[in-house]
Each structure stands twice: as structure tokens, then as C-alpha cells.
Amino acid sequence: MYEKQPWLGQYGATPVSLEYPELSIYGLFKKNYKEYPDTDALIFFGKKTKWPSLDQKIINMSRKFAQIGIKKGDMVIVCLPNIPQAVISIYALNRLGAIPAPIHPLSAAGEIEEFSKLVSAKAAITLDGFYPRFEGISACFEKIIVCSLKTEMDLLTKTGFVIGMGRKIKPVPFSSTVLDWAKLETEKEAPELKTPDPTGADEMALILFSGGSTALPKAIMLSNRNCNALALQMQTHGGPLTPGDKMLSILPVFHGFGFAVGIHTMMIIGGACILIPKFKASTLAPLIKKHKPQFMAGVPTLYDALAANKKFKKVPLGSFKGLFCGGDSLSPEIKKRFDEVLKKSNAKTFLREGYGLTETVTACAIMPREQYRENSFGIPCPDNWFKVVKPGTEEECPLMEDGEICVSGPTVMIGYYKDTEATALVLKKHKDGRLWVHSGDIGCMDKDGFFYFKQRAKRIIKTSGIAIYPSRIEDILNKHPAVRLSCVIGVPHENRGEEPKAFILLKDGYKGSDELKQDILKSCESHLITYSRPRYIEFIEKMPMTRVGKIAFRELEERERSKRQ
Fold it and tell me: I need a labelling partner for 230 at 20 to 30 A (CA). Which of 48, 207, 224, 383 fits?
């Protein structure tokens, strides 16, 4: 039955099936890099790291991590932006058999504590500028390893950094439990691991966090095979990528798209990652002009910002072979504007949309190189299978009929960490014998095998491609002594797509005021990352409810939509 699926006729030169090695993510990195000793692996603020040097750093830090007590199976929070230490950490921990759990580097202290407790993290790796958020929760970890941006910069950039931003960073109180990455890295050589690279292809390699549809985050367990399969799929279906190609690695490593596409795909083909710790449209222009990258992956708001940037519009873009968009739906308007910029710059490619879930590492479908269907996110990657079913069933919908999108293939997660109940709701074995992820997203398929996203069945707000879960924000708001009930919805934002707005019903005896709004927002600071804090608060006299006693958030969405028309 599956051999007859219509998308198989859309691959062109891309093979419909690939071979996936029985290796860890570090094992696949190690296997491939040996062929490219003289090429760059990382480019960061002018400093280039070649492949042999990067591997030596990974080997060295895996030994140092072991020396301070981290062992196979231990969970380690990685709270870093896109910097060399983030890349080294993930592969070094994998070589050791420990499990990196990347989180957003701007996470609030309460969130970091929540993530660490969820996976019983043994250690954390972070930046000196972020360390103040770890001070009050240091008891959560046996060790906290702190690194600095300046140690991986060239001399000129380092000098400017120290004079400018570096002066604002408070000295870290290093101790037996709070360790200096730079000192650890340069101390005398540690003994080799008893069993280097001990994890098999189907063992856990990575934890990525997702808020799910409840107030509590979920820890998504991904195997070595999951991560390697996605990188190999991107190498063929997304590329072709070839040794020496360069990727603008903008999306952060805590995001599946950022790690698997932006970094790991390049690491297994002998390519280079141009690491960008913080996106600014104006800073990309000189980087593109200097390094002439072939690939870039981003979210819709990133491409929207670039299309509007005067400096970016003047830069030659002819070096690009692939520009990928995911994390949220790409509107035809943004695609049209960005493609127009590409056309004027004589680029030989167009912006290609994809679709993915953290439960499948990230992208599991992408628009083919030679085709484009408006409003479609493309076709499944090799070895991935999609079907659209009537919600709550395994029954497939007819062509162009909306239903729930389900995904099967080698990138499907192991499950949610210590949450068999939630796993069973999402991962289901169908009568066809395949294990399917029920995405909760609504869409359809046309006669040629192209898929179309229509809406999220889950209650999620997407800001700059990052999922925000309203129930999580409401849980924090409802703890304020003045708040009786709250409801958070997404409202349009010109650049970010959406941003959260809170409707609040106050307890008796409280009156709405600007001072109370500020106090409520203040209470969110230690529990919510900046972008997930409400941008607006509206006090209401009565909270709309459904017949079964639930807050009617869709009524508030409709009310807000009417006000903005």
C-alpha cells in the first residue's frame, strides 16, 4: 500500500530510501570528518576551527566531563546560545554516553529548575552572563560549568567584546561545584574514557523540551538513530549538501531544527557552521558577503525581517543552494517578498517551506528542490510516511479532506521521558504495523502527495517560530493573589507572528489598574522566559465559559479578532 503513495513520484534525483548507520551522533561525526582535515568546521566571530581541532576539543571535554563525575546515562542541562562550546558540549556528552538536554538560554530561573527536576539533571553548562539565574537554584545540580563568549573569539573581536558587553558581566564565584570551562579545558590532560562512544544507534542521545498541551513541559527522548536519520535526510532531500558547504546556523541548539538541521547535518558531511548566537537582520549581510554560505534555515519571521532589511537586499545571494523555512506556517506574502529579494540578487534557489515536530526531531517534510505548491509544506522526507486521518481514529481521509496529520519513520521519538501516559496519547501503533506520531495538527494531502497545513488542534501560540503554551502562562498568572481566573491567547504581531495576551478576572476586592498590571507582569519574570510573558493584560468582568465549565478561549479569540478588524 505505502509503495504506491503519490509523493514517491515527486523525489526526482533524491532516493526514496536511505541507509542509516548503527552509530551514535558522535560516531557519525567521527566517521565522516576524517576525510576533510583541512576544511573549517566552525566559524565564530572571525575565529575558525578546523575539523581535527574540533574533534580534539570534543575528545578532551568528554574526558574532563567524566573526570568531574558525569557518566553514561546522566542528564546535563545545556543552557547556551549558538557558540562553539554548545557544539562541543553536545558531542562530548554523547561520546561519554551522557545525555544533553538543551534549553533556551534566556530561560527564567523557575523554568531552569523545572526542566532540571523533570529529568533529574546532574549538571548544567551555561554562559557567565546567564549564571545569575543559576545561583538561586544551584542545589539542583552537582556541577555547573560556566563558559564565556570571549574564549572562542579572535583577538580583535575579543577586545571589543571585553570593552563593551563584557564589562557588564559579573564575575562568577567559581568553586568546587561551579567550574570554569576555560580552566577545565586547558588543565592537564584527563585519562581516556574506559568505553568511549558507548551508546548504540537506538539508545537515547538527546532530550528536547516541549510544553505539550498541559501546563507542564514534556521531555522528548530522541535516539542517535533519530538525529542521524534526519541529518541524512536533509543531506539528500534538502540539498544536496557537499563537503565544504557552509550553513548560517542561526536557529538555536535547544530547537530541534537548530541542532539537527543547522548543526548536525553539516557536522556529518564535512561542512562548516557559521555560528550566530543572536539574530539581527543587519548583521547577516556582512557575514554572507564574507563567507558566501550555501545554506540557511530559519523561521518565517526571520525571513520577513531579512526581506525588509536594506543591507540584506544589497548583498549578493548567488552562493545559496538552499534556504529552508520551518517552525511555523510560512505565509504566501512572506515567501513572495523573500523570493523577490532572491530573484533580484540572481540567486538560483527559492525559499523552501518544511513541516516538523519536536517528536520527530524536527523537519519530516520539505518542499522539493524543483517544485513549488502554494500553501503546501511539501512532501515527506525519504523513509517518512504521512497520512491524514479522521481525528480520534486510524481511518484515512479522502484526498483534500482535512484531518489529523500523522507521521511515521526513522525520526519518530522514543517517547516522553517518564510519561508513559502522554506517550501513549501521541505514539500509536496502527493496524498497518507502523508506529505513528499523532501530531494534533490539521491538514490534508492532494493527489500528487503534497501536504497542506491548516491549523493546530493543540492550543499553542507561535512567536518567531517558537511554541508558547497558554496553559503554562495561565498557571503562573493564576498564582498571583489578585487573579481569580486567566486566559491567554495569541494576538497578531507584525514581526513575530503572534504574541501572548492575557485576559484576567480578578478576585473580589481587587480593581484593575496599571499598577496591578505591572505587578502581575513582575510576578511572571522568575517563571517565564521573556518571549512567553504576556505583552498585554486586559481585565474583564466575566470570563466566558463553555457548557462543561471550561474557559471558552475561542470566544476570546473571536472577540479580539473582531476588535482588530
Answer: 48
Instruction: Quickly count helices (H) and strands (E) in the chain.
Output: 18, 27
For 399, the grid coordinates are 484526498
Query: How far is Cα 436 from Cα 433, in angstroms, rounded to an integer?
Result: 9
Going through 281-434 in order, the beta strands assigned E by DSSP cover 295-298, 322-325, 351-356, 363-366, 376-380, 385-389, 403-408, 415-416, 427-429
Of 267, 264, 248, whose CA–CA distance to 256 is shortest?
264
CATH 3.40.50.980 fits 44-199, yes or no: yes
CB 87 within 8 A of CB 111: no
Q: Classify residue 481 by its DSSP letter.
A: T
Q: How far apart are CA 547 and CA 549, in angstroms?
A: 5
Model-level pTM?
Answer: 0.88
Hey, where are the domains in the chain? 44-199, 377-456, 461-564
In the 8-state DSSP scheme, what is residue 356? E
CA–CA dist 312, 303 (Å, integer): 11
Residue 73 contacts by C-beta under 8 Å, 6 or more apart in sequence?
A: 97, 98, 99
Q: Which CATH architecture has domain 377-456?
A: Roll (2.30)
| DSSP 3-state percent helix, strand, coil across the chain (nearest 5) | 35, 25, 40
Q: How far is residue 39's CA from residue 471's CA, in Å, rounded to a whole number?
A: 47
Q: Measure CA of the first residue to CA of the last residue in the chain; give whole Å.
A: 47
Fold adopted by 461-564: GMP Synthetase; Chain A, domain 3 (3.30.300)
For the chain, the maximum distance between any two Cα atoms, rounded to a whole number of angstroms, is 72
